[in-house]
Specification:
371 residues, alpha/beta, six-stranded parallel beta sheet, three-stranded parallel beta sheet, 14 helices, binds zinc ion
Length: 371
């Protein structure tokens, strides 16, 4: 065992232990726009916006019907060959900004549309909604809740009103998720939708979480039992809102970021531990994000970590963002990363024939029953 592997193993010791070998694949950002097109990517690059330093700006785009179909076909191969169906817990952002309406309102108020309408408006038909429902009904995708918008609206509108050059250029091209320069003050991660600086902003966030949660039920026909905060930024006040909505489990990375006046404070989270409201944390312990670093030996490293996590009686909770399944900017991005993902899944099944694939909410319920 290398030093890094030893430290990883030790990090896996705290928290609930489970007897089974369970694999959960958590994929954030479904439903949310990112880079609208190759053409816009070029316009933003020409405008001095950093593209290549951030793989999400470079490659992440709203999923297409073809992306759902390609994913279904690949997962179905596993099902046919091994009798097990890997399920992707797709964490959905329920809405996207209506850019023109926001501009018409002089950036004073926020307007949005359901992501299913973003699909429809882009495609001019309902093909992506049909493909999404096929993936859900076939058990390949299990939707869970990621938020109403992947955007800190109060901070965004205030910067747009000040006419931040790069944000305005992105806005005019119907994009918001860019790396941009803030003139001064508190560093701002605009993607951290639940972040807040004052009570007024917190109330906006609260309304947004509650509104998005009911939209989730409208679209998918059931309530999400889990949530993952955008950019892992949240605190106890958000957890109280989650509790009131009936959310039992919080998907987390090892480190939670708490909003504060001097930037984020870090807090470590461990699998199955309860917060003061009795909600339990589901903590990601493996990052399989080949889109973010194609040169990294993802399969080899992930299999070694899997061995250590199972040895510590932990499930594998794999983080794999939508970017890895997205072909909207570069088709090869999706094809290469799904190929690697299939290789990983096949290796896992061959090494651990008794593994079970679960969604995040299933894992949560399993933890409740076994601890
Ligand atoms: Zn996200």
């Amino acid at each position: 065992m290398t030093l890094r592997e030893g430290l990883y193993f030790l990090s896996q010791i705290p928290g609930s232990r489970i007897g089974k070998k369970i694999v959960v694949i958590e994929s954030d950002d479904w439903g949310s726009i990112r880079m609208p097109s190759l053409n816009v990517r070029e316009i933003l690059r020409q405008g001095g916006i950093q593209i290549d330093s951030n793989p999400f700006n470079k490659l992440d785009a709203l999923e297409l019907d073809k992306d759902y179909v390609y994913l279904i076909q690949n997962l179905d191969c596993i099902k046919q060959n091994y009798g097990k169906t890997p399920v992707i817990t797709a964490n959905y952002i329920m809405t996207n900004p209506q850019f023109q309406a926001i501009a018409r309102a002089g950036f004073e108020s926020y307007k949005y549309e359901l992501f299913t309408d973003t699909y429809q408006n882009r495609d001019q038909d309902n093909r992506t909604n049909v493909a999404m429902n096929l993936a859900i009904d076939g058990g390949y995708i299990r939707p869970q809740y990621h938020g109403r918008e992947h955007l800190n609206v109060p901070a965004w509108l205030s910067l747009l009103k000040k006419d931040n050059t790069q944000l305005t250029l992105a806005f005019n091209n119907e994009a918001f998720g860019i790396d941009f320069k803030v003139p001064s003050g508190r560093s701002s991660n605009l993607m951290a939708a639940f972040d807040y600086e004052n009570e007024k902003d917190f109330q906006f966030v609260k309304t947004s979480i509650i509104d998005g949660y009911s939209k989730f039920e409208d679209v998918f026909g059931f309530k999400s039992k889990t949530i993952v905060a955008p950019c892992h930024v949240w605190d106890e006040r958000h957890e109280k809102i989650f509790k009131e909505l009936g959310i039992q489990f919080i998907q987390s990375s090892l480190v939670q970021l708490l909003p504060g006046q001097d930037g984020y404070k870090k807090k470590y989270r461990f699998l199955g531990r309860k917060n003061r409201w009795g909600q339990r944390y589901l903590v990601r312990n493996i990052f399989f994000e080949p889109a973010t670093l194609p040169s990294y030996p993802w399969i080899e490293k992930t299999l070694r970590k899997a061995k250590l996590a199972f040895a510590a009686h932990k499930p594998l909770i794999i983080s794999m963002h939508r970017i890895n399944f997205s072909s909207g900017i570069e088709r090869s991005n999706r094809d290469q990363n799904i190929e690697l993902f299939m290789e990983l899944i096949e290796n896992l099944i061959q090494m651990y024939p008794d593994i079970e694939f679960m969604s995040s909410d299933q894992l949560g319920l399993h933890l409740l029953q076994s601890n």
